[in-house]
């Protein structure tokens, strides 16, 4: 039995559709379906009723759902506790960061705030927002670095998880230019053809922000879904190659904008100002984490 099977099972039980669940788990739908079938074969009974409206739990699946969640929590706790014993004398500071910030904002930001010769060993975990939240809630890292908008929900209760703004960014609708340097997919003109959207998947924090922003939500409702990924860098590549419009962090797309490989697809009212925010774990603490937090608080 594979741990991924349990995670697949819980995703399908929650989302009730093979396509949506496969996208959330970042696997192809045929591979996802095979893994669900493998779990059912391992248990020895069907867990889902398949139908035109999606997938619903059988009585056996309803019985198994809380057990699967408990098993995942227990295994992750065992892994975390065992790893912390092995790393206790080697890892000084651990930070989870979303993919978009890991390669753009994080390197210069950490260099400006910490002297590596005095730091010891720094561990950076680069993941989707959904995965970063799980890691943070599990007490596996000292901090989480992510994009933030007050209207988009996170799983961190303000009274437990302190946070501080460490930078600013902006989500901007971008696309490739046409031969004249104008946007190939202008949001202001939907008369010629439907505008193709390069969308964020369920696991993306940037996708949550887009869904919470009224102007972009209204624009997206008029667009044609063309491609989905939880990685902003992947959507940027697709936009650069002319496949549609993607709302991208300006920090990520800076060089492509400067080189003219990407252009704005719409007027400024479609832009979404966002923060870059550092969340602190209430459960994972040490002297290095205290020092960094004190410096940021000053």
What's the gist of this structure?
The chain has 298 residues and is α/β, with parallel strands linked by helices. The protein is built from 13 helices and eleven strands.
What does it look like?
By secondary structure, the protein is of the alpha/beta class. It has 3 domains: 3-84, Arc Repressor Mutant, subunit A (Orthogonal Bundle); 89-163 and 276-297, D-Maltodextrin-Binding Protein, domain 2; 168-275, D-Maltodextrin-Binding Protein, domain 2 (3-Layer(aba) Sandwich). Helix content is 45%, strand content 23%. Strands 3, 4, 5, 6, 9, 10 and 11 form a 7-stranded mixed beta sheet that branches. A two-stranded antiparallel sheet has the order 1-2. A two-stranded parallel ribbon has the order 7-8. The model has no long low-confidence stretch (mean pLDDT 88).
In terms of quaternary structure, what is this? Answer: single chain
Described by strand count, sense and barrel closure, the largest sheet is: 7 strands, mixed
Shape: flat
CATH class category label of the largest domain: Alpha Beta
Average pLDDT score: 88
CATH architecture of the largest domain: 3-Layer(aba) Sandwich
Structural class call reads alpha/beta
Helix content class: 40-55%
Strand content: 15-25%
Radius of gyration (Å): 21 Å
């Amino acid at each position: 039995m594979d741990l991924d099977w349990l995670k697949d099972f819980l995703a399908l039980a929650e989302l009730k559709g093979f396509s949506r669940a496969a996208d959330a788990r970042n696997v192809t739908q045929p591979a996802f379906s095979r893994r669900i079938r493998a779990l059912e074969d391992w248990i020895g009974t069907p867990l889902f009723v398949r139908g035109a409206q999606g997938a619903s739990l059988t009585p056996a699946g309803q019985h198994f759902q809380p057990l699967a969640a408990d098993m995942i929590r227990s295994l992750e706790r065992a892994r975390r506790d065992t790893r912390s014993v092995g790393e206790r004398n080697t890892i000084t500071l651990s930070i989870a960061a979303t993919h978009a910030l890991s390669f753009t904002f994080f390197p210069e930001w950490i260099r400006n705030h910490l002297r590596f010769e005095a730091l010891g060993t720094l561990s950076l975990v680069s993941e989707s927002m959904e995965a970063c939240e799980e890691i943070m809630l599990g007490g596996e890292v000292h901090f989480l670095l992510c994009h933030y908008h007050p209207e988009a929900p996170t799983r961190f209760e303000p009274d437990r998880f302190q946070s501080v703004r460490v930078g600013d960014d902006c989500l901007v609708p971008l696309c490739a230019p046409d031969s004249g340097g104008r946007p190939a997919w202008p949001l202001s003109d939907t008369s010629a053809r439907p505008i193709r959207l390069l969308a964020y998947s369920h696991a993306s924090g940037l996708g949550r922000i887009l869904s919470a922003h009224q102007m972009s939500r209204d624009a997206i409702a008029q667009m044609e879904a063309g491609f989905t990924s939880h990685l902003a860098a992947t959507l940027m590549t697709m936009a650069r190659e002319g496949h549609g419009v993607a709302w991208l962090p300006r920090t990520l797309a800076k060089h492509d904008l400067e080189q003219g490989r990407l252009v704005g697809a719409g007027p400024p009212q479609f832009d979404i100002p966002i923060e870059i925010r550092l969340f602190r774990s209430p459960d994972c603490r040490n002297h290095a984490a205290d020092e960094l937090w004190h410096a940021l608080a000053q």
